[in-house]
Amino acid sequence: MTKLNILTRGIIKENPVFMLLLGLCPVLAVTTQAENAIGMGLATTFVLLGSNIVISILRKIIPNRVRIPCYIVLIASFTVLAKMIIEAYAYPIYQSLGIFLPLIAANCIIFARAEIFANKNGSINSILDALGFGAGFTLALLAIASIREIFGNGSWFGVEIPWLTNNSAMIFTLAPGGFIVLACLLAVVNKISKDNERRKNIDCKTCPNACICGRT
Amino acid sequence: MDIDFRALVVIMMSAALVNNYVLRQFLGVCPFLGVSKDLKSSVGMGFAVMFVMLLAASVTWPIQVFLLDTNDLRFMQTVVFILVIATLVQLVEVILKKYSPSLFESLGVYLPLMTTNCAVLAVTISNINNGYTYIEAVVSALGAGLGFFLAMVIFTGVREHTASADPPEAFKGIPLILITAAILSLAFFGFEGVIENLFGQ
Amino acid sequence: MINTFVKPILVLTAICLVVSGALAYVSSITTPIINAADSERAYIAMNEKIPNATGFETINLADYNDMPKTIKQAYRTSNDVGNIFIAAINGFSGDITIICAINSTGEIMAVSTLSHTETQGIGTIIEQEPFLDTFKGIDQNLAGVDTVTGATVTTRAFIHAVEDVMTAFWIINN
Asked: Which domain holds residue B48?
């Protein structure tokens, strides 16, 4: 696989949200505003990058039997690091992400990349992989958040859109709106891309994380 | 020690219905979508989540209050909690396997999923954020677990019916399931204000 | 033996130790910044609430008995035009911190939310003027505040905090 392939794979072909349907909790929860989506996307990318780098460096040292606890500790630490930095330097984002900031520690995308990629590849490739999947996640969040903010709140990145501001449909920013917007976007993806087992039949068997969750 | 039972009921109902973890707060969406194909597995998953939530909440609260708070180690909260949850899950698995193979058969498969289930971590963290007492924390975990169980079982029932539906090609599979979840989530909005009307304030 | 038991435990322990150390270091850097930003925001909010105050003096809460435990900070104005209270109460998904200004006769001058982590869309009502304005000019009885219609865990907690602020005001000014 070429370097370019590794970098772009996470953005389109294996987009964590639209193709693999991973980490849906933050995808639905923080996407009421485009700004929050960017904040969450960047924070997740930071944690993903950190964990991928460290795990790829330590992959020969970490014994196979305790690799999952090691991932948990490392990922959770990078999450706390991100949380402290955001709280200190970007307080409004810290406020709006709320409990979903510490919950990055349980985001299955990061576990998946650690187990599937960083554990088996060198640092450079792992960095590219993290950047690709981070970008894919951020873009997906941004797409959903843009739709929800524009129609639900009549604004985009806080900038009011004429007419829509006075005719916004609040349902978009509420919980059901999150499910509906994601459903419609996935229907569009279904239409334009070829069959995807996971989107047709979501269960634990098609989950890329089965190797961590289930028994290996 | 006097216990405010009214407050406990409010906390429980709030966690289970008004602020349902899956349908209102988007916590634990992955298992909610992934394991809701048939009633048997969704009941198993529901019980497993409820059990682990209760266990995790009752263990993490003392850790936070007597260990992290007193030693000024609050920043370690996320790391410690997720490790504790992972360890508990492993322990329960081993114990179940040894002493109750039949229970292990029905719940065991879902236990390893708990580590990456954000609903469990969320319950422990929000107990601390909310400044709950020990009993309140346990009750809120029980409520959250019940709410997850309820959402899971209702959703499975609805989802079984969508199997015979004939949606447009593009909506087949996950989009249809998400729309179903949206409608269920809308239904849970009906609980808004229930607590205030039942218990006054 | 060494490879199957000792090594995994050693590696895991080492990682935990290194990680804790690193986090402690970062925490020691960010905590002062976070605290400073908190009090900065509080000061700006205080000035907005009572513009004609010449200065603010901290009230030592430990001097009073029966102070509601939700009250975190209290200030009196140097020219005695009122008091400011900062109270934190549990909402649904975390603390709601409010700032409330009360004039010398015990009426609310203004109240607003300093920080909260409630659900977007539902919880954010406590940031909006229609809700906040219902508290203006209200005294101890809280008569006129709508506590039922559309109430959520969030608004209920908010009103609770305002009640505690009122209690605290009369404890201090008696």
From this structure: 5-192
Tell me the three-class secondary structure of chain B, residue by residue: CCCCHHHHHHHHHHHHHHCCCCCCCCCCHHHHHHCCCCHHHHHHHHHHHHHHHHHHHHHHHHHHHHHHCCCCCHHHHHHHHHHHHHHHHHHHHHHHHHHCHHHHHHHHHHHHHHHHCHHHHHHHHHHHHCCCCHHHHHHHHHHHHHHHHHHHHHHHHHHHHHCCCCCCHHHCCHHHHHHHHHHHHHHHHHHCCHHHHHHCC
Residues in chain C closer than 8 A to B79 (CB atoms): 19-20, 23
Residue B36: closest C-alpha in chain A: A203
Number of domains in chain B: 1
Question: Is 70 exceeded by the pLDDT of residue C93?
Answer: no
Instruction: Look at residue A20 and tell me if it is in a domain.
Output: yes
Q: Is residue B103 part of a domain?
A: yes
Among the partner-chain residues C15, C37, C120, the one whose CB lies closest to the CB of A74 is C15
Task: Report CB contact under 8 Å: C20, B76.
Answer: yes
**pTM of the predicted structure, to 2 decimals:** 0.82
A174 touches chain B (CB under 8 A): yes
Residue-averaged pLDDT of chain B: 85
Domain count, chain A: 1
Residues of A in contact with C12 (CB under 8 A): 66, 69-70, 73
Is residue B197 included in any domain, yes or no?
Answer: no
Is B201 a residue whose pLDDT tops 50? no
Domain boundaries, chain C: 52-172
Domain range for A113 is 10-213
Q: pLDDT of A3-53, one tens digit each?
A: 888 888 888 888 888 888 888 888 898 888 898 899 999 999 999 999 999
